Amino acid sequence: MSVIVVGSSGGGTATLGHTDPQDLLRAINDELERINSCDENRRSEHGILYALFISCDASMDCVNEERDIATLWTVGIGEDCAKGLSKSFQVRPYYTGFLKAVNSKVKELEENILVPAIMQEKISLVKGMICISCDPKCVNFSSLSAAAKQHLPVTGSGGTSLSAAATTHEGLSIVGNAGGSVATTTYTRAVSYAYALSTVWKEPYSPFKGGQKNGKPKIGSILDACLPSFLAVCVSCKVLEFILQTSSTAGEIDSHGGDLVKSLTNYQFIQQLRYQALPSVCSVVAATSLAPEHGSTAVMAATVASISSWGSILAGLFAGWLVSLLLGRTLFMSIRLGIPATMTNIITAGFVGSSVALLCHVSGIVRLLSNASILIRTFVRTAPSFGTWNGQGYGFMFGCLFCYGSKVGWYHSIFLPMILIEMEHGEASIWGSIDICTLVLVSAGICAANVLLSRDVITRRGLKINLLCGDFIEVAYPYMEKSTIVNLSAYLASGIASEILYSSDPTQVMSSAYLPFPISIFLAHDTFRVSLAMLSAFTVSFLGMLLSILVDFFSTHADANKKRKND
User: Fold this and answer.
1) Burial tier of 243 (Cβ tally within 10 Å: 0-12, 13-18, 19+)
2) Between 530 and which of 105, 118, 195, 509 could a Cys-Cys bridge form, CB atoms 3.0 to 4.6 Å apart?
3) How far is CA 388 from CA 384, 391, 394, 541, in A?
Protein backbone atom coordinates (compact mmCIF):
# COMPACT_ATOMS: atom_id res chain seq x y z
CA MET A 1 0.00 0.00 0.00
CA SER A 2 1.44 3.34 -1.01
CA VAL A 3 -1.15 6.14 -1.09
CA ILE A 4 -2.67 8.45 1.53
CA VAL A 5 -6.17 9.84 0.96
CA VAL A 6 -7.47 12.91 2.78
CA GLY A 7 -10.56 14.97 2.17
CA SER A 8 -14.25 15.44 2.69
CA SER A 9 -17.62 15.18 1.01
CA GLY A 10 -17.07 18.73 -0.23
CA GLY A 11 -19.47 21.40 -1.34
CA GLY A 12 -20.39 20.24 -4.84
CA THR A 13 -24.03 19.16 -4.65
CA ALA A 14 -23.82 18.08 -8.31
CA THR A 15 -21.14 15.52 -7.50
CA LEU A 16 -22.15 11.85 -7.37
CA GLY A 17 -20.43 9.61 -4.82
CA HIS A 18 -18.88 12.04 -2.35
CA THR A 19 -21.61 11.24 0.17
CA ASP A 20 -20.80 7.50 0.08
CA PRO A 21 -17.28 7.38 1.51
CA GLN A 22 -17.11 3.58 1.64
CA ASP A 23 -17.92 3.21 -2.05
CA LEU A 24 -15.57 6.05 -2.99
CA LEU A 25 -12.57 4.76 -1.02
CA ARG A 26 -13.09 1.17 -2.21
CA ALA A 27 -13.25 2.34 -5.83
CA ILE A 28 -10.03 4.32 -5.42
CA ASN A 29 -8.29 1.35 -3.80
CA ASP A 30 -9.47 -1.01 -6.56
CA GLU A 31 -8.06 1.24 -9.27
CA LEU A 32 -4.77 1.75 -7.41
CA GLU A 33 -4.40 -2.04 -7.21
CA ARG A 34 -4.66 -2.22 -11.00
CA ILE A 35 -1.44 -0.21 -11.35
CA ASN A 36 1.37 -2.49 -12.45
CA SER A 37 -1.02 -5.47 -12.26
CA CYS A 38 -0.62 -6.70 -15.83
CA ASP A 39 1.19 -9.73 -14.47
CA GLU A 40 -1.55 -11.83 -12.86
CA ASN A 41 0.99 -13.72 -10.74
CA ARG A 42 2.27 -10.53 -9.16
CA ARG A 43 0.38 -8.77 -6.38
CA SER A 44 0.13 -5.00 -6.85
CA GLU A 45 2.07 -2.99 -4.29
CA HIS A 46 -0.26 -0.02 -4.59
CA GLY A 47 -3.41 0.81 -2.68
CA ILE A 48 -4.64 3.04 0.14
CA LEU A 49 -2.27 2.94 3.10
CA TYR A 50 -4.14 5.53 5.18
CA ALA A 51 -7.34 7.47 4.60
CA LEU A 52 -9.02 10.25 6.58
CA PHE A 53 -12.33 11.20 4.97
CA ILE A 54 -14.94 13.47 6.56
CA SER A 55 -18.53 12.85 5.47
CA CYS A 56 -21.19 15.45 6.20
CA ASP A 57 -24.79 15.66 4.95
CA ALA A 58 -24.54 19.44 4.68
CA SER A 59 -22.54 21.11 1.94
CA MET A 60 -19.08 22.10 3.14
CA ASP A 61 -19.57 25.48 1.43
CA CYS A 62 -22.18 26.53 3.99
CA VAL A 63 -21.65 24.14 6.89
CA ASN A 64 -21.84 25.18 10.55
CA GLU A 65 -18.98 23.52 12.46
CA GLU A 66 -20.75 23.77 15.81
CA ARG A 67 -24.16 22.56 14.65
CA ASP A 68 -23.74 20.05 11.80
CA ILE A 69 -22.94 16.39 12.46
CA ALA A 70 -20.15 14.68 10.55
CA THR A 71 -18.46 11.27 10.48
CA LEU A 72 -14.78 10.53 10.08
CA TRP A 73 -14.14 7.45 7.91
CA THR A 74 -10.72 5.87 8.01
CA VAL A 75 -8.53 3.25 6.37
CA GLY A 76 -5.50 1.79 8.14
CA ILE A 77 -6.26 3.55 11.42
CA GLY A 78 -7.55 1.82 14.53
CA GLU A 79 -6.46 -0.64 17.19
CA ASP A 80 -6.37 -3.68 14.86
CA CYS A 81 -4.56 -1.73 12.14
CA ALA A 82 -2.03 -0.32 14.57
CA LYS A 83 -1.18 -3.80 15.78
CA GLY A 84 -0.96 -5.07 12.22
CA LEU A 85 -3.87 -7.44 12.71
CA SER A 86 -5.98 -6.15 9.83
CA LYS A 87 -4.62 -7.48 6.54
CA SER A 88 -7.65 -6.74 4.34
CA PHE A 89 -8.77 -3.38 3.06
CA GLN A 90 -11.45 -1.96 5.37
CA VAL A 91 -13.25 1.39 5.49
CA ARG A 92 -14.41 2.12 9.04
CA PRO A 93 -16.37 4.88 10.78
CA TYR A 94 -13.84 6.22 13.30
CA TYR A 95 -15.70 9.07 15.00
CA THR A 96 -19.08 10.82 14.72
CA GLY A 97 -19.87 14.20 16.24
CA PHE A 98 -20.08 17.88 15.50
CA LEU A 99 -17.90 18.87 12.56
CA LYS A 100 -15.63 20.99 14.77
CA ALA A 101 -14.79 17.95 16.92
CA VAL A 102 -14.30 15.75 13.86
CA ASN A 103 -11.89 18.28 12.37
CA SER A 104 -9.89 18.23 15.61
CA LYS A 105 -9.67 14.44 15.41
CA VAL A 106 -8.36 14.65 11.85
CA LYS A 107 -5.69 17.18 12.82
CA GLU A 108 -4.59 14.91 15.67
CA LEU A 109 -4.43 11.82 13.46
CA GLU A 110 -2.52 13.69 10.78
CA GLU A 111 0.11 14.81 13.28
CA ASN A 112 0.44 11.41 14.95
CA ILE A 113 0.10 8.99 12.00
CA LEU A 114 0.13 10.58 8.53
CA VAL A 115 3.01 13.01 8.96
CA PRO A 116 5.38 10.42 10.53
CA ALA A 117 4.50 7.98 7.70
CA ILE A 118 5.29 10.60 5.04
CA MET A 119 8.43 11.92 6.75
CA GLN A 120 9.92 8.51 7.58
CA GLU A 121 13.72 8.76 7.53
CA LYS A 122 14.21 5.38 5.91
CA ILE A 123 12.43 4.50 2.69
CA SER A 124 8.85 5.67 3.15
CA LEU A 125 5.94 3.46 2.13
CA VAL A 126 4.04 6.55 1.00
CA LYS A 127 4.47 7.16 -2.74
CA GLY A 128 1.62 9.57 -3.40
CA MET A 129 -1.35 11.46 -2.01
CA ILE A 130 -4.95 12.01 -3.07
CA CYS A 131 -6.84 15.09 -1.86
CA ILE A 132 -10.61 15.15 -2.29
CA SER A 133 -12.17 18.50 -1.41
CA CYS A 134 -9.67 18.85 1.43
CA ASP A 135 -8.89 21.83 3.68
CA PRO A 136 -5.23 22.65 2.94
CA LYS A 137 -5.13 25.74 5.15
CA CYS A 138 -6.35 24.17 8.38
CA VAL A 139 -7.59 20.58 8.79
CA ASN A 140 -5.20 18.94 6.29
CA PHE A 141 -2.38 21.47 6.63
CA SER A 142 0.06 19.08 8.32
CA SER A 143 -0.15 16.23 5.81
CA LEU A 144 0.08 18.54 2.78
CA SER A 145 3.06 20.36 4.28
CA ALA A 146 4.81 17.04 4.75
CA ALA A 147 3.91 16.01 1.18
CA ALA A 148 5.39 19.25 -0.15
CA LYS A 149 8.63 18.71 1.79
CA GLN A 150 8.96 15.14 0.49
CA HIS A 151 7.96 16.17 -3.06
CA LEU A 152 5.18 13.58 -3.13
CA PRO A 153 2.94 13.63 -6.21
CA VAL A 154 -0.52 14.88 -5.19
CA THR A 155 -3.68 14.47 -7.25
CA GLY A 156 -7.33 14.91 -6.45
CA SER A 157 -10.51 16.82 -7.15
CA GLY A 158 -12.25 19.89 -5.82
CA GLY A 159 -11.19 23.03 -7.64
CA THR A 160 -11.26 25.37 -4.65
CA SER A 161 -9.24 23.12 -2.35
CA LEU A 162 -6.60 22.21 -4.94
CA SER A 163 -6.07 25.85 -5.86
CA ALA A 164 -5.67 26.70 -2.17
CA ALA A 165 -3.25 23.80 -1.69
CA ALA A 166 -1.04 24.94 -4.56
CA THR A 167 -0.79 28.49 -3.21
CA THR A 168 -0.51 27.58 0.50
CA HIS A 169 2.12 24.85 0.28
CA GLU A 170 5.14 25.93 -1.73
CA GLY A 171 6.70 23.12 -3.73
CA LEU A 172 3.57 20.93 -3.67
CA SER A 173 3.56 18.75 -6.78
CA ILE A 174 -0.01 18.54 -8.12
CA VAL A 175 -0.22 16.02 -10.96
CA GLY A 176 -2.76 14.64 -13.40
CA ASN A 177 -5.91 16.33 -14.61
CA ALA A 178 -6.92 17.40 -11.11
CA GLY A 179 -9.72 19.92 -11.14
CA GLY A 180 -13.35 20.53 -10.24
CA SER A 181 -15.73 17.75 -9.27
CA VAL A 182 -19.10 18.95 -10.61
CA ALA A 183 -21.01 16.16 -12.43
CA THR A 184 -18.27 13.63 -11.73
CA THR A 185 -18.86 10.11 -10.39
CA THR A 186 -16.99 7.80 -8.05
CA TYR A 187 -15.57 5.72 -10.90
CA THR A 188 -14.51 8.75 -12.96
CA ARG A 189 -12.52 10.18 -10.08
CA ALA A 190 -10.99 6.85 -9.09
CA VAL A 191 -9.68 6.19 -12.62
CA SER A 192 -8.43 9.76 -12.89
CA TYR A 193 -6.49 9.54 -9.60
CA ALA A 194 -4.97 6.16 -10.46
CA TYR A 195 -3.88 7.22 -13.94
CA ALA A 196 -2.32 10.46 -12.64
CA LEU A 197 -0.21 8.63 -10.05
CA SER A 198 0.75 5.77 -12.38
CA THR A 199 2.02 8.30 -14.93
CA VAL A 200 4.30 9.92 -12.35
CA TRP A 201 5.49 6.55 -11.09
CA LYS A 202 6.02 5.45 -14.71
CA GLU A 203 4.16 2.22 -14.08
CA PRO A 204 1.56 0.67 -16.42
CA TYR A 205 -2.11 1.14 -15.58
CA SER A 206 -5.31 0.23 -17.36
CA PRO A 207 -8.82 0.15 -15.87
CA PHE A 208 -9.52 -2.85 -18.14
CA LYS A 209 -6.78 -5.10 -16.73
CA GLY A 210 -6.04 -6.59 -13.35
CA GLY A 211 -8.35 -6.40 -10.37
CA GLN A 212 -11.31 -8.66 -9.76
CA LYS A 213 -12.70 -10.33 -12.87
CA ASN A 214 -16.47 -10.57 -12.74
CA GLY A 215 -18.34 -12.55 -15.35
CA LYS A 216 -20.62 -10.38 -17.47
CA PRO A 217 -24.27 -11.47 -17.75
CA LYS A 218 -25.58 -12.79 -21.05
CA ILE A 219 -28.02 -10.79 -23.14
CA GLY A 220 -30.78 -13.33 -22.41
CA SER A 221 -30.31 -12.85 -18.67
CA ILE A 222 -30.39 -9.07 -19.08
CA LEU A 223 -33.65 -9.32 -21.05
CA ASP A 224 -35.16 -11.60 -18.39
CA ALA A 225 -34.28 -9.02 -15.74
CA CYS A 226 -36.51 -6.49 -17.53
CA LEU A 227 -39.64 -8.64 -16.91
CA PRO A 228 -41.21 -6.30 -14.27
CA SER A 229 -41.30 -3.41 -16.75
CA PHE A 230 -42.78 -5.60 -19.49
CA LEU A 231 -45.59 -6.75 -17.20
CA ALA A 232 -46.29 -3.21 -15.98
CA VAL A 233 -46.48 -1.82 -19.54
CA CYS A 234 -48.63 -4.74 -20.72
CA VAL A 235 -51.18 -4.39 -17.91
CA SER A 236 -51.20 -0.59 -18.24
CA CYS A 237 -51.86 -0.77 -21.98
CA LYS A 238 -54.69 -3.25 -21.43
CA VAL A 239 -56.28 -1.05 -18.76
CA LEU A 240 -56.03 2.02 -21.01
CA GLU A 241 -57.53 0.03 -23.89
CA PHE A 242 -60.39 -1.04 -21.61
CA ILE A 243 -60.98 2.55 -20.45
CA LEU A 244 -60.99 3.75 -24.06
CA GLN A 245 -63.49 1.09 -25.14
CA THR A 246 -65.73 1.76 -22.15
CA SER A 247 -65.69 5.53 -22.64
CA SER A 248 -66.39 5.14 -26.38
CA THR A 249 -69.38 2.93 -25.61
CA ALA A 250 -70.74 5.25 -22.94
CA GLY A 251 -70.20 8.36 -25.07
CA GLU A 252 -68.31 11.54 -24.21
CA ILE A 253 -68.78 12.73 -20.62
CA ASP A 254 -68.56 16.48 -20.02
CA SER A 255 -67.12 16.28 -16.53
CA HIS A 256 -63.85 15.98 -14.70
CA GLY A 257 -64.10 12.23 -15.22
CA GLY A 258 -64.28 12.80 -18.96
CA ASP A 259 -61.17 14.98 -18.84
CA LEU A 260 -59.35 12.24 -16.94
CA VAL A 261 -60.31 9.66 -19.56
CA LYS A 262 -59.06 11.93 -22.34
CA SER A 263 -55.80 12.46 -20.49
CA LEU A 264 -55.25 8.73 -19.84
CA THR A 265 -56.10 7.71 -23.39
CA ASN A 266 -54.01 10.42 -25.04
CA TYR A 267 -52.62 8.94 -28.27
CA GLN A 268 -49.09 10.28 -27.77
CA PHE A 269 -48.90 8.91 -24.24
CA ILE A 270 -50.05 5.44 -25.30
CA GLN A 271 -47.61 5.42 -28.22
CA GLN A 272 -44.72 6.35 -25.91
CA LEU A 273 -45.76 3.62 -23.50
CA ARG A 274 -45.98 0.98 -26.22
CA TYR A 275 -42.96 1.83 -28.36
CA GLN A 276 -40.42 3.77 -26.28
CA ALA A 277 -40.68 2.66 -22.65
CA LEU A 278 -39.45 -0.91 -23.02
CA PRO A 279 -36.55 -0.24 -25.44
CA SER A 280 -35.33 2.43 -23.00
CA VAL A 281 -35.57 0.00 -20.09
CA CYS A 282 -33.65 -2.67 -22.01
CA SER A 283 -30.96 -0.19 -23.01
CA VAL A 284 -30.42 1.06 -19.45
CA VAL A 285 -30.44 -2.41 -17.88
CA ALA A 286 -28.00 -3.70 -20.53
CA ALA A 287 -25.58 -0.80 -20.02
CA THR A 288 -25.67 -0.93 -16.21
CA SER A 289 -25.36 -4.74 -16.15
CA LEU A 290 -22.44 -4.87 -18.56
CA ALA A 291 -20.67 -1.79 -17.17
CA PRO A 292 -21.80 -1.59 -13.51
CA GLU A 293 -18.74 0.39 -12.46
CA HIS A 294 -19.99 3.43 -14.40
CA GLY A 295 -23.23 3.69 -12.38
CA SER A 296 -25.23 6.83 -13.16
CA THR A 297 -23.02 7.62 -16.17
CA ALA A 298 -24.19 4.40 -17.84
CA VAL A 299 -27.82 5.23 -17.00
CA MET A 300 -27.60 8.67 -18.61
CA ALA A 301 -25.76 7.49 -21.72
CA ALA A 302 -28.06 4.48 -22.24
CA THR A 303 -31.19 6.59 -21.81
CA VAL A 304 -30.07 9.00 -24.52
CA ALA A 305 -28.92 6.12 -26.76
CA SER A 306 -32.32 4.38 -26.49
CA ILE A 307 -34.10 7.27 -28.24
CA SER A 308 -33.18 5.68 -31.58
CA SER A 309 -34.63 2.28 -30.59
CA TRP A 310 -38.30 3.16 -31.15
CA GLY A 311 -40.40 0.00 -31.04
CA SER A 312 -37.51 -2.50 -30.80
CA ILE A 313 -36.28 -3.99 -27.54
CA LEU A 314 -33.52 -5.78 -29.46
CA ALA A 315 -32.30 -2.40 -30.69
CA GLY A 316 -32.49 -1.16 -27.09
CA LEU A 317 -30.33 -4.07 -25.92
CA PHE A 318 -27.87 -3.39 -28.73
CA ALA A 319 -27.68 0.31 -27.85
CA GLY A 320 -27.07 -0.54 -24.17
CA TRP A 321 -24.38 -3.04 -25.10
CA LEU A 322 -22.66 -0.51 -27.36
CA VAL A 323 -22.79 2.12 -24.60
CA SER A 324 -21.20 -0.29 -22.12
CA LEU A 325 -18.46 -1.01 -24.66
CA LEU A 326 -17.65 2.65 -25.32
CA LEU A 327 -17.98 4.18 -21.85
CA GLY A 328 -14.77 2.81 -20.32
CA ARG A 329 -12.68 3.42 -23.41
CA THR A 330 -13.96 6.97 -23.85
CA LEU A 331 -13.41 7.71 -20.17
CA PHE A 332 -9.84 6.41 -20.15
CA MET A 333 -8.97 8.14 -23.43
CA SER A 334 -10.25 11.46 -22.04
CA ILE A 335 -8.19 11.06 -18.89
CA ARG A 336 -5.07 10.18 -20.88
CA LEU A 337 -5.60 13.32 -22.95
CA GLY A 338 -5.60 15.37 -19.74
CA ILE A 339 -9.25 16.38 -19.94
CA PRO A 340 -10.58 17.45 -16.49
CA ALA A 341 -12.92 15.09 -14.64
CA THR A 342 -16.04 17.20 -15.14
CA MET A 343 -15.55 17.49 -18.91
CA THR A 344 -14.64 13.79 -19.03
CA ASN A 345 -17.96 12.87 -17.48
CA ILE A 346 -19.83 15.21 -19.83
CA ILE A 347 -18.22 13.42 -22.78
CA THR A 348 -18.89 9.90 -21.47
CA ALA A 349 -22.37 10.45 -20.02
CA GLY A 350 -23.62 12.77 -22.75
CA PHE A 351 -21.83 12.41 -26.04
CA VAL A 352 -21.39 8.62 -25.94
CA GLY A 353 -25.18 8.23 -25.61
CA SER A 354 -26.00 10.68 -28.40
CA SER A 355 -23.34 9.16 -30.66
CA VAL A 356 -24.75 5.65 -30.19
CA ALA A 357 -28.27 6.95 -30.88
CA LEU A 358 -27.09 8.60 -34.08
CA LEU A 359 -25.18 5.49 -35.17
CA CYS A 360 -28.17 3.19 -34.61
CA HIS A 361 -30.43 5.61 -36.45
CA VAL A 362 -28.35 6.04 -39.61
CA SER A 363 -27.00 2.47 -39.83
CA GLY A 364 -30.40 0.80 -40.23
CA ILE A 365 -29.74 -1.59 -37.34
CA VAL A 366 -33.02 -0.59 -35.64
CA ARG A 367 -35.07 -1.52 -38.73
CA LEU A 368 -33.16 -4.80 -39.06
CA LEU A 369 -33.75 -5.77 -35.43
CA SER A 370 -37.41 -4.67 -35.61
CA ASN A 371 -37.94 -6.99 -38.58
CA ALA A 372 -36.27 -9.81 -36.63
CA SER A 373 -38.77 -9.28 -33.79
CA ILE A 374 -41.68 -9.33 -36.27
CA LEU A 375 -40.46 -12.66 -37.66
CA ILE A 376 -40.22 -14.12 -34.15
CA ARG A 377 -43.75 -12.94 -33.23
CA THR A 378 -45.16 -14.32 -36.47
CA PHE A 379 -43.50 -17.67 -35.80
CA VAL A 380 -44.74 -18.12 -32.22
CA ARG A 381 -48.27 -16.86 -32.93
CA THR A 382 -48.94 -19.16 -35.87
CA ALA A 383 -49.73 -22.90 -35.81
CA PRO A 384 -47.87 -24.51 -38.73
CA SER A 385 -49.78 -26.36 -41.45
CA PHE A 386 -48.52 -28.53 -44.31
CA GLY A 387 -50.63 -29.88 -47.16
CA THR A 388 -53.76 -31.48 -45.73
CA TRP A 389 -52.58 -31.00 -42.13
CA ASN A 390 -54.19 -27.87 -40.69
CA GLY A 391 -52.02 -27.72 -37.59
CA GLN A 392 -54.32 -29.81 -35.39
CA GLY A 393 -52.30 -31.40 -32.60
CA TYR A 394 -49.50 -28.81 -32.82
CA GLY A 395 -50.68 -27.13 -29.64
CA PHE A 396 -50.69 -30.43 -27.76
CA MET A 397 -47.15 -31.26 -28.85
CA PHE A 398 -45.86 -27.80 -28.06
CA GLY A 399 -47.50 -27.82 -24.61
CA CYS A 400 -45.70 -31.07 -23.78
CA LEU A 401 -42.44 -29.60 -25.12
CA PHE A 402 -42.91 -26.47 -22.98
CA CYS A 403 -43.46 -28.60 -19.88
CA TYR A 404 -40.37 -30.68 -20.66
CA GLY A 405 -38.24 -27.63 -21.48
CA SER A 406 -38.99 -26.03 -18.12
CA LYS A 407 -37.37 -29.03 -16.41
CA VAL A 408 -34.17 -29.06 -18.48
CA GLY A 409 -33.27 -25.36 -18.39
CA TRP A 410 -34.92 -24.03 -21.53
CA TYR A 411 -37.27 -21.66 -19.75
CA HIS A 412 -34.91 -18.78 -18.89
CA SER A 413 -32.65 -19.29 -21.91
CA ILE A 414 -35.34 -19.69 -24.62
CA PHE A 415 -38.97 -19.44 -23.53
CA LEU A 416 -38.89 -16.28 -21.38
CA PRO A 417 -36.79 -14.21 -23.84
CA MET A 418 -39.21 -15.18 -26.65
CA ILE A 419 -42.17 -14.19 -24.44
CA LEU A 420 -40.61 -10.78 -23.80
CA ILE A 421 -39.91 -10.23 -27.51
CA GLU A 422 -43.61 -10.96 -28.10
CA MET A 423 -44.49 -8.32 -25.50
CA GLU A 424 -42.22 -5.57 -26.82
CA HIS A 425 -45.16 -3.39 -27.97
CA GLY A 426 -47.12 -3.61 -24.73
CA GLU A 427 -49.10 -6.66 -25.83
CA ALA A 428 -49.49 -9.94 -24.00
CA SER A 429 -47.98 -13.19 -25.33
CA ILE A 430 -49.30 -16.51 -26.62
CA TRP A 431 -46.30 -18.23 -25.08
CA GLY A 432 -47.17 -16.32 -21.92
CA SER A 433 -50.58 -18.02 -21.96
CA ILE A 434 -48.87 -21.38 -22.49
CA ASP A 435 -46.55 -20.50 -19.61
CA ILE A 436 -49.37 -19.91 -17.15
CA CYS A 437 -51.32 -22.98 -18.31
CA THR A 438 -48.58 -25.59 -18.70
CA LEU A 439 -46.49 -24.51 -15.71
CA VAL A 440 -48.38 -22.30 -13.25
CA LEU A 441 -51.85 -23.91 -13.39
CA VAL A 442 -50.43 -27.43 -13.66
CA SER A 443 -48.37 -26.76 -10.54
CA ALA A 444 -51.40 -25.22 -8.82
CA GLY A 445 -53.50 -28.31 -9.57
CA ILE A 446 -50.84 -30.63 -8.12
CA CYS A 447 -50.58 -28.41 -5.04
CA ALA A 448 -54.39 -28.27 -4.60
CA ALA A 449 -54.66 -32.09 -4.52
CA ASN A 450 -51.92 -32.27 -1.91
CA VAL A 451 -53.56 -29.58 0.20
CA LEU A 452 -56.87 -31.46 0.03
CA LEU A 453 -55.54 -34.86 1.09
CA SER A 454 -52.07 -34.57 2.62
CA ARG A 455 -52.19 -31.11 4.28
CA ASP A 456 -48.61 -30.45 3.16
CA VAL A 457 -47.46 -26.96 4.26
CA ILE A 458 -45.22 -26.27 1.27
CA THR A 459 -47.96 -27.13 -1.22
CA ARG A 460 -50.40 -24.81 0.56
CA ARG A 461 -47.92 -22.00 0.05
CA GLY A 462 -47.27 -23.17 -3.52
CA LEU A 463 -51.00 -23.13 -4.33
CA LYS A 464 -51.39 -19.61 -2.97
CA ILE A 465 -48.36 -18.20 -4.80
CA ASN A 466 -49.19 -19.90 -8.11
CA LEU A 467 -52.77 -18.59 -8.16
CA LEU A 468 -52.12 -15.12 -6.75
CA CYS A 469 -48.62 -14.40 -8.10
CA GLY A 470 -48.29 -16.69 -11.13
CA ASP A 471 -45.01 -18.18 -9.92
CA PHE A 472 -43.41 -20.96 -7.81
CA ILE A 473 -43.92 -23.78 -10.32
CA GLU A 474 -40.89 -25.60 -8.88
CA VAL A 475 -42.93 -26.78 -5.88
CA ALA A 476 -44.57 -29.42 -8.10
CA TYR A 477 -41.37 -30.90 -9.54
CA PRO A 478 -40.59 -33.30 -6.65
CA TYR A 479 -44.07 -34.84 -6.98
CA MET A 480 -43.67 -35.17 -10.74
CA GLU A 481 -40.29 -36.90 -10.30
CA LYS A 482 -41.62 -39.18 -7.60
CA SER A 483 -44.77 -40.36 -9.38
CA THR A 484 -45.17 -41.46 -13.00
CA ILE A 485 -48.90 -40.80 -12.74
CA VAL A 486 -48.36 -37.18 -11.69
CA ASN A 487 -45.71 -36.67 -14.38
CA LEU A 488 -47.94 -38.05 -17.16
CA SER A 489 -50.92 -36.03 -15.95
CA ALA A 490 -48.77 -32.87 -16.03
CA TYR A 491 -47.79 -33.53 -19.64
CA LEU A 492 -51.40 -34.38 -20.54
CA ALA A 493 -52.67 -31.19 -18.86
CA SER A 494 -50.04 -29.11 -20.65
CA GLY A 495 -50.89 -30.62 -24.02
CA ILE A 496 -54.68 -30.22 -23.66
CA ALA A 497 -54.42 -26.61 -22.46
CA SER A 498 -52.04 -25.60 -25.25
CA GLU A 499 -54.19 -27.32 -27.89
CA ILE A 500 -57.17 -25.26 -26.71
CA LEU A 501 -55.10 -22.08 -27.03
CA TYR A 502 -53.94 -22.93 -30.56
CA SER A 503 -57.34 -24.29 -31.69
CA SER A 504 -58.27 -20.90 -33.13
CA ASP A 505 -56.59 -17.50 -33.57
CA PRO A 506 -53.76 -17.53 -30.94
CA THR A 507 -53.62 -13.71 -30.85
CA GLN A 508 -57.01 -13.71 -29.09
CA VAL A 509 -55.73 -15.66 -26.07
CA MET A 510 -52.43 -13.88 -25.37
CA SER A 511 -51.68 -13.45 -21.69
CA SER A 512 -48.84 -13.73 -19.17
CA ALA A 513 -47.71 -15.57 -16.08
CA TYR A 514 -46.28 -13.77 -12.99
CA LEU A 515 -49.68 -12.17 -12.36
CA PRO A 516 -52.80 -13.18 -10.36
CA PHE A 517 -54.73 -15.55 -12.63
CA PRO A 518 -57.83 -13.24 -12.89
CA ILE A 519 -55.56 -10.51 -14.32
CA SER A 520 -54.03 -13.06 -16.69
CA ILE A 521 -57.55 -13.83 -17.92
CA PHE A 522 -58.31 -10.09 -18.22
CA LEU A 523 -55.31 -9.59 -20.54
CA ALA A 524 -56.75 -11.96 -23.17
CA HIS A 525 -59.37 -10.87 -25.73
CA ASP A 526 -61.04 -14.31 -25.75
CA THR A 527 -61.47 -14.72 -22.00
CA PHE A 528 -63.66 -17.84 -22.37
CA ARG A 529 -61.05 -19.84 -24.31
CA VAL A 530 -58.14 -18.83 -22.06
CA SER A 531 -60.26 -19.64 -18.98
CA LEU A 532 -61.12 -23.05 -20.44
CA ALA A 533 -57.42 -23.74 -21.09
CA MET A 534 -56.50 -22.74 -17.54
CA LEU A 535 -59.31 -24.83 -16.05
CA SER A 536 -58.26 -27.84 -18.14
CA ALA A 537 -54.63 -27.58 -17.01
CA PHE A 538 -55.64 -27.23 -13.37
CA THR A 539 -58.25 -30.03 -13.41
CA VAL A 540 -56.19 -32.68 -15.23
CA SER A 541 -53.11 -32.15 -13.03
CA PHE A 542 -55.32 -32.06 -9.93
CA LEU A 543 -56.95 -35.38 -10.82
CA GLY A 544 -53.56 -36.91 -11.66
CA MET A 545 -52.13 -35.94 -8.26
CA LEU A 546 -55.32 -37.13 -6.55
CA LEU A 547 -55.09 -40.50 -8.29
CA SER A 548 -51.40 -40.84 -7.35
CA ILE A 549 -52.14 -40.16 -3.68
CA LEU A 550 -55.00 -42.69 -3.64
CA VAL A 551 -52.90 -45.33 -5.42
CA ASP A 552 -50.09 -44.85 -2.89
CA PHE A 553 -52.60 -44.99 -0.03
CA PHE A 554 -54.24 -48.25 -1.13
CA SER A 555 -50.87 -49.76 -2.09
CA THR A 556 -49.46 -48.99 1.37
CA HIS A 557 -52.51 -50.48 3.10
CA ALA A 558 -52.42 -53.56 0.87
CA ASP A 559 -48.75 -54.12 1.72
CA ALA A 560 -49.48 -53.64 5.40
CA ASN A 561 -52.35 -56.16 5.33
CA LYS A 562 -50.21 -58.66 3.44
CA LYS A 563 -47.43 -58.33 5.95
CA ARG A 564 -49.92 -58.74 8.83
CA LYS A 565 -51.25 -61.96 7.31
CA ASN A 566 -47.76 -63.35 6.82
CA ASP A 567 -46.95 -62.60 10.46
Assistant:
1) middle
2) 509
3) 11, 9, 14, 33
